[in-house]
Write a structure and sequence with these properties.
Length: 516
């Protein structure tokens, strides 16, 4: 008999199993519902029919409780954890398969027997003492619920066993359909899932690479000191003279295209440094010469490739009102300036700046080296990409980008930024990230890289320092959220695989000067 709905099942651990409204309770949670006066609503003497079981499967019996990606750990199972089943594999693409799985009838009967025995120990019905309710009476009340619970346990386990026997590693949630079950007959179903591709590494040790070492000079320190001074500049309001390059101005503006307004075409009290190239085209240069309180019409043509299609390639007329001019005054670079920044003198400040620049260049050099090594491996190791992994990485990247914009005070909607455009822009980076991950996973597997508790503690300590949190709080979080702990463990494992590539590489150091 075929289930009537098709769905993508949501994975959940056994600890996350919850009773849905009207759903059969998992056996571990049934006890509080077992003191009955008028039977179970919806059940019938004799335990219902095969159609009842299919209805339960379709409605709620499997998906919310299934531990699809990590295997189940049901409380009542004490033996025969391994599912004896048959599985046929159908290739639907380079990274997609369909598993047609059949579980024998005797395995279903055994599972039901285990469930009834566990229930019998806990059940308390009118006229019977706890633990003394006959099995035939329990079957009268709980046949439908326990059949659904048996399928809830057997389908995930059979699916996991089929993956294991065929050496498949899933990278998406399975789509379970075509569930067929009749009493005293085998259970069959179809699971469609994306899997990780086979990675065949030709070589990952002894790769030739360059480490670029950039020398920090006195002029580099000087430029950094000037930028630091600029951040501590004072601003003085100008009353009489016109605006010039380098001034900060506050303006209101309204734009239109051929006399018609467009979306988000105006701004109030907009702060701008003339010459910073913050605004499009020569908008800023046309402010030069304006005095406080003056108005001017400014024409700007937007580039054809501008992200806002409404403005791309169009000439826009802006009516601008210059409300305020401020002149930036830089502090003198002397010992007093250094003392304001909590240093003893200017030389000590310069020394600290040089150390920070050298640290930055070292870290930047190592990132480039690792990227180049991974680029070489990606080029030499072609394999298909699972779409599900790429899409998940894209979602993370886009959400990070939007969060950074909002944190900087920018409104993605007002800027005309579309998610589809972001996906197109970030897809190459997402694909590269997935390739990196899969290659490093294979190297970690071949090298039998393991993670110990000391490495986990060290990483948690680093995270606590970088996020200004208590180490104990982070440790408690990972102890509670086991999936996050598994992710942290995998992060460390892949990092060790990358360190191995670097350690085994044949590296030549090249010295360069820093760019201005």
């Amino acid at each position: 008999m075929r289930g009537r709905t098709t769905r993508s099942w949501v994975p959940a651990s056994s600890a996350d199993r919850q009773i849905l409204p009207g759903a059969p309770a998992p056996i571990a949670q049934l006890e509080e519902h077992l003191t009955l006066n008028q039977g179970v609503p919806g059940s019938s003497p004799g335990g219902g029919t095969t159609a009842d079981v299919a209805e339960l499967v379709d409605a709620y019996g499997l998906g919310p409780y299934a531990f699809w990606l990590g295997g189940s750990s049901p409380s009542v199972r004490t033996k025969n954890v391994r599912i004896t089943m048959k599985a046929q594999v159908e290739r639907l693409g380079e990274c997609k398969i369909a598993l047609k799985i059949e579980v024998p009838a005797d395995r279903i009967i055994e599972e039901l027997d285990n469930l009834y025995q566990d229930l019998q120990k806990k059940a308390k019905l009118p006229g019977f003492r706890r633990g003394k309710v006959p099995l035939d009476v329990l079957k009268t009340y709980f046949a439908r619920s326990l059949k659904a619970d048996a399928l809830d346990r057997l389908i995930p386990d059979a699916y996991q066993e089929a993956l294991k026997e065929n050496d498949f590693v899933p990278c998406s949630q399975p789509k379970i359909e075509e569930v067929k079950y009749e009493e005293n007959k085998p259970l069959s179903f179809k699971a469609t899932v994306e899997i990780k591709p086979e990675i065949r590494l030709k070589r990952y040790k002894g790769i030739r690479a360059k480490r670029v070492v950039k020398i920090v000079r006195e002029e580099d320190v000087g430029r950094a000191l000037e930028r630091l001074a600029s951040k501590h500049a004072e601003f003085t309001s100008i009353e009489n003279r016109p605006a010039k390059k380098g001034d900060w101005v506050i303006i209101d503006f309204v734009g239109n295209i051929e006399g018609k307004p467009f979306k988000d075409n105006e701004a109030k009290n907009f702060s701008l440094e003339i010459g910073s190239k913050t605004l499009i085209g020569d908008f800023e240069n046309q402010l030069i010469g304006l005095k406080r309180g003056e108005e001017k019409e400014i024409k700007v043509r937007f580039p054809k490739g501008y992200h806002n299609k409404e403005l791309a390639g169009k000439e826009v007329l802006f009516k601008v009102n210059l409300k305020e001019i401020k002149e930036k005054k830089l502090p003198e670079l002397n010992d007093e300036f250094a003392k304001d920044l909590k240093f003893n003198n200017l030389e000590e400040l310069k020394k600290r700046i040089k150390e920070d620049l050298e640290k930055y260049e070292t870290e930047h050099s190592e990132r480039l080296l690792r990227n180049n090594l991974m680029d070489w491996l990606i080029k030499k190791t072609p394999f298909p990409l699972p779409g599900a992994m790429v899409e998940r990485e894209l979602e993370v990247m886009i959400e990070d980008a939007l969060t950074r914009m909002r944190y900087s005070g920018l409104d993605p909607k007002r800027m005309g930024i579309e998610e589809a455009k972001l996906k197109e822009e970030y897809r190459p980076s997402a694909e590269r990230k997935v390739k990196n991950t899969l290659i490093l996973e294979e190297i970690a597997k071949q090298e039998n890289i393991e993670i110990n508790e000391q490495e986990i503690e060290k990483r948690i300590e680093e995270m606590a320092l970088s996020t200004n949190q208590k180490k104990e709080d982070l440790r408690d979080f990972f102890d509670r959220e086991r999936s996050h702990l598994a992710g942290l463990r995998e992060e460390i494992r892949l990092k060790k695989a990358l360190e191995l590539i670097v350690k085994e590489a044949r590296i030549k150091e090249v010295t360069q000067r820093r760019r201005k």
